[in-house]
Amino acid sequence: MLRPTTWCTQPGPSVGRTRRPRRRSSPRSHSASSGCASALPSCGGGSWKQAGRSCCISGLQVRHGPRSNAESYSVDKVAAKLVKVTSAVQHTELMQVLDDRLIATTDVPGLGVKSGWQLLSQSSQNGGSGTSTPQRERSRGSSLNIAGRPLKTSPSRNSMAEDLLNLRNASNFPVELSFADPEGYREVEIVFPRPRCIYAVSFLTTGDERQFDPVCWEIDGSVDGSSWMRLQTQSGEFDTPSMRRCPVETFFVTEPWCKPQGSSLVKVDLQKIPAAVSERLCFFANSLRAILKSGDLRPGRDTLLDRKVGNVPTLTQVVPVYEEQVLLSEEFLCASDGRNSNLGFTISQAEDQWEIFARKQGMAPRELYNSFTCGELHEWVRQAEVDQDWTKAKEIRELIFEVRFWASQRSQTVSRTVLGAIQYHKVLEMLPSVQASPQTNLEGLVQLFISHQTYGHKKQKEEVDQDIRSLIWRYRQYPVFLVCDYDAELARPSLKEMVTCHAAREHNFTGRFQYASLLLAFNENYVQGQPEENIVKVVEVLPRVYPLVLGELEHRPPAAKTQGKAGNQLQALRFAPGHYLQMMDANMGAFFGEACKVPFILQHFQPAGSDRRTVQARIIGFREHIFTGSHGAVGAAMADAEWTFGTICQRFLAGLGARMHYGHPDFLDGFWASNRGSMSKASPVLNLSEDIFAGFNVLMRGERSTHVDCLEWEKGREVSFNSASLFFTKVASGNVGVMRSRDLKTLTGSMNIADSFSFYFASVGFYLYNVVTDISMSAYVFIFVLLTLSSKSLDDIGKLDSLLAAEWVISFGTLAMFPRLMELTLEYGIMEGFIRFLPSIPGAVLVFTFMNKSIAEAVGSTMQTGIASYVSTGRPPANDHYGWRDCYFFYRESHYYPAVRILIMYAVYRSLAETFNVAALPMMVLLGTACVWLAGPMLFCPQPTFWSLRDDLSEFWCFVIGTPHAERSVNLKEVNLEERLAAQKDDATANLYDVWLFDKLKHKRAPMLARVMEIAVAMALLVVMLAVVFGTMVDQIRSVVLLVLLNYFILALWRVFGRPTILMMLSGVLWICAVPFVLNSQSLGGQYGTLLVAFILTFQALTVIEKALLLGAWVCLRPDPDCASMPESSIEELRQKRDAARRVQSYDAVVEYFYLNFMSYQWHLYVSIMLLAVNLVVQLGVAVLEMLGGLQSWWLLGSKLRGGCCRVRRPEYKPPGSDHDPPSERRIQLSGEREGLRSRLGKGIS
């Protein structure tokens, strides 16, 4: 990995000097005199041994005031050492220690040469002032002074090799040689003639290549030369100009808190920096007022840089990880969504950041993108390995990793969360009290626990473990720990060996334990080249009796079940030493400026100077910045909703004293949580929404959960339509578990009426509201059907002053948008607030019309089954294209069929209104809602093309007409028919017939009471329908029954001839043609309403008959679905098992018979064909918009992906640039295009 130069200048009022550069990856050590970090140097081209450099500046430029001109101070540090070789023996001894880069590999005591010294040419020694050394690749001629006779070298990019060749051929002695001492480049000291203020600092480059320029540094100042104060830290890499021996023309201002009082302010034009940076800086500056107004800051003690180690509360950060993405893989980034690669989509959201990153890597943006996505980097690695150039191969692999890391930092990954948590570590590390105390350990102030449940498991992909270890290696200088679950049966051999050795070495335990919680940390003794598993070491082992698993296990008692995220949090809590805890999800992040405010926020727990009896809060929440808001229309809608809930609602609920803990990156009182039931509850059924129970725990014990507005952490949300719907399904199901919990009952039983209202909306109110709203839609249409059957017109309803007589255009849900509008105007001003609010209305209305139905359906289904299942959304990117078949599996019961039922009821209402010649309401809002439920997934499906439409249509059509092929014979291993059906989404052979037959067979395990209640409800509905309709409508049932009998004959032929698709299509044609035939007969006179009611009555009667007959068959056969587990050790047991299997098979055959002949399968078939037509029309229109101007991609994904106009095949997105630009120097170096020249020179040297 290329590591940038770190140089430190300490210009102060009287003295300034360049301190030893701090290597970021080295262990932290501190100088006792100055508090500056000290370690081995590194440089822009690699380590000292790789490039022969540590820093390269020829002068410093200092501004001593905001309006003063820059003053230049030359740097004439000479780091050359003269060595005299007097004999051939000394010459041979020297040649043995010099490598091909003219660097001494070991000491030569006889000559005074030290390891790491680099041989210089005479021209380089006298080449001017500055701290530069000769270029590794020079373009001009140079000379090497041997025995007073300069030997000329040709202008070559490999003059080092030629210098070495000339030196080896030397025969006349003595020879005087110049060596560069690397220690001489560790610091640069500038002494001012009198004490002066340091306002800003810049530097001048040298004549060396640009790749060796400094990119980050630290500046300290001193008055007496012994006590130093940090003035400025440049931790981000700085892009130096290409011109040599010139000023960089950028001045780096010292931190405001280090400047004298009364300094003038610095104006920053926020229009000239990236929008994301501008927004973060604006909030950071505005939020400081809230901290200053808190009144708890004591001058000289409570400011950030004045804080002593004992005044900083210890914080433990916990990141629970199970299946979350740690780092985006190379395969994922190169994969295409049908048009663009995933890396291309990520770049399109941050073009300016990609350009900065590519320039730092020495390549053009388009060049680096093409090299990565086309696989050129892997080809270069392979070629380097063939040439045995291991250094180059490692460099290319590190470049691949850097690209992956860059993309991961702009996605919802664990690495982004870890980097955000590390920002607070960097804040504490820069405190003067920490730097001035060598004995101070950062681990005593903050710890980051990555609680990875499946690390080291054989079932886990090895690539995931490698990514975790790469993060620990990258941040090895910080207190980053890995907490994992140990299972002796599932653990990899390397982890088992580490645990066994630790137990024997630390505890003299040589026995065996099955389960344990492990605390791992970076192994300081690890040396590159060792097995990668040795990067971590075992710090602590806590054996357990039971495993930490998701859901149920047969060998565990029911009381010992755990839920995934809660189990991870509890496991980390066992090792957490911090006074306070920060719970984070694996899709968060943090801005460095926000991390600077964390010590001030932690003061809200306990006033300064008080003890544990005066704790003011147990949970402190704060704002969230949803960084995925720029990832398309769905991401923007989800970000707006999360911002509204996480900021506006949290602030309001905290004021009412009803705020809970909702899974946000809240701070918790660690001592209190470890003694009062952890941070969440872990039952996998009741506590699916595990975080809110921490808030319940706080409220039940009479404690406070508060909220602050001056801190804002980053958080991601779902950006794909399907994943967003699945997220709301999961949360809604979890809230049913909350309703069933004992915590809710305890809280509501002890609240007054005012607190109950607040608590209702803080817990389950929103979800129950959606259920009531969903039920009211069907009830609304049904009421008008009953009124029409009663011959009540709109005039009759209006005379009763009823609101039902008017069309409702705006619903109460519209009011939910106003809190966000008010907050936007408060934060951004009226004009900017409306500019941000108005464009978001269409997308938000469409998205949440669909999502609210997901919530209502999830609550209703979970109430029926009593099981809240965890749903993994996967957090796919916004450009992830999904098919029609996937949408059918996701939404068939939650959205499609409810929409079809509403449309059928509305059709009945309009037909009856025409039949009875009364006016009818248009119900535009209702119809629009149903249409959104049907067409929503297609409207938000990204990157539609005519080719993707063809593939989706073909896939869905094959699914609809697929022929069932499950074996129907008795199988003692798979007795139940549903076990052999192709009914799962992940099964490529799944078909419509098997999917709904599988659903029919579910009730086989239902108890008698549930089945009787189901029949009673169906019968009551049939009785009500017969009671409210006219007799003429009931008379038409015989016509529908006749059609059913005819359809039965066609289905018999369908079974006889091997289930051909043509006969099933013929059945559909029969029903279509029968409608006008029946209307023209029986003297209906074209009354569609009467015929529709007759159809509905007939099918409801068939449903009742089917359920009754199935109940009778179930009572007679008594099928045992679990008979496959019956013993068969004897002939009698085998006979009983086969008899039970035959009963199950007979019952399954009865279910399938009624499923096919009582119109269930045909109903699903016709609805699926209707959905196919809807999807085709909607996506065809969207594809046309894409072809005309990329309008759908512009709205859904962003303007960068819009493309051109009137293009059938639109090109993929690529970063700015041209594919025909000349290659960069870095590409030429990595691709090996100069190997021919190097090979020739190598032969000459040999």
Structure notes:
- There is one protein chain.
- Residues 1-55, 122-158, 256-264 and 1236-1246 have low confidence and may be disordered.
- The chain is α+β, with helices and mostly antiparallel strands and 1246 residues long.
- Helix 30 packs across helix 40 (1160-1189) and helix 32 (946-961) runs antiparallel to helix 40 (1160-1189).
- Helix content is 46%, strand content 11%.
- The longest helix has 32 residues, at 884-915.
- It is elongated, with a radius of gyration of 37 Å.
- It contains 43 helices and 26 strands.
- The protein has a ten-stranded mixed beta sheet, with helices on both faces. A five-stranded mixed beta sheet has the order 12-2-1-14-15, with no helix packed on it.
- The chain starts with a strand and ends with a helix.
List the helices and strands and how they pair.
Elements: E1 5-9, E2 15-19, E3 42-43, E4 46-47, H1 48-51, E5 59-63, E6 71-74, E7 80-85, H2 88-97, E8 118-120, H3 122-125, E9 143-146, E10 149-152, H4 159-168, E11 175-180, E12 189-191, E13 200-204, E14 214-222, E15 228-234, E16 252-253, H5 275-293, E17 315-321, H6 330-334, H7 342-348, H8 351-360, H9 365-373, H10 376-386, H11 390-408, H12 414-429, H13 432-435, E18 446-452, H14 462-474, E19 480-487, H15 493-507, E20 515-522, E21 536-544, H16 564-573, E22 580-583, E23 588-589, H17 592-595, H18 598-602, E24 619-626, H19 632-656, E25 667-669, H20 670-675, H21 692-700, E26 705-715, H22 721-740, H23 742-748, H24 753-762, H25 765-789, H26 794-799, H27 818-828, H28 830-837, H29 840-865, H30 884-915, H31 924-939, H32 946-961, H33 992-1000, H34 1008-1028, H35 1031-1035, H36 1037-1056, H37 1061-1080, H38 1088-1117, H39 1131-1157, H40 1160-1189, H41 1191-1196, H42 1225-1231, H43 1235-1245
